[in-house]
Model the fold of this input.
Amino acid sequence: MKIYREVDEIKEPFQNACVTIGNFDGVHLGHQRLFDVVEQRAYHSHGTSVAITFNPHPLQILRPGGIKLISTCEQKIELIGLSGIDVLLIIPFTRDFAATSAVEFVDEILLKRIGVKHLFIGYDYAFGKGRTGDIPFLKRQGEEKGFSVTVIEAYHEDNILISSTKVRELVAAGNMSETRKLLGRCYQLRGEVQRGKQRGGKEIGFPTANLHVDEEDLIPKYGVYACQVISDGKCYGGVINIGFNPTFSENKLIAEVHIFDFNQDIYGKPIKVNLLQFLREERKFSGIEELSAQIARDVVCAKEILSQTTKQIDRFLW
Done:
């Protein structure tokens, strides 16, 4: 997949461009279905499949603090690349760009830069200043300026409308099985392993890798989860606690993961954590002995979950 991070990087229109536009937060099954349609049309028309998205998410600029993202820009790029799209244009979103009119976006970007021939949009998508670039507008523009417009209808899974908003609700509730159904993969945390208090191995008996998490990010319900940990291209089982570690009266949000059958030094190295199932809420224990006993029970439970679901759980982003 060819990636452009500025509109000006595109020097000439693409051959018979089949285009979709969206924020694509999470790249859930609805987005994947949209990409499939675009790719099929590009294939049959000997054209180029093009996805246009924005970074940062427009609401992060227009309504700071008003949205928690399912995926980072890095994850979004990976997932769109795996979908098979030929070209990804990531437009830097600023307040100046937000003032771009819908007509200007069509003329200067879709037509002049991209060379759109076929445009595919989600059933609820709108863009441009004041969101004036809605479906009726685009259909009129297509008729006047020579490109087709296809609206992809809402997509449901088990009678649930698949949307980024619904995915956020499920993640916040700790419902990882339903989240997985809508994403088509596990919800994933990423980060570099940081040095913590180092009491996990020495005092508690369960060494942990600590990840920095930001309360401004989309954080799952606080508590303990069974998980998969991907480190250096290998996948391990584990349990992760997300929260404030009340037993030790921490006042900082942390994610601590105990990786099964693992003894490597990974400080400063990146890992990915696939959340499989919520096990229990965080609670304050009387001391290290009680906490250690509970973690031992968590490990047994997590291993049972892993043994039952390994064949069903994808390892999508190793």
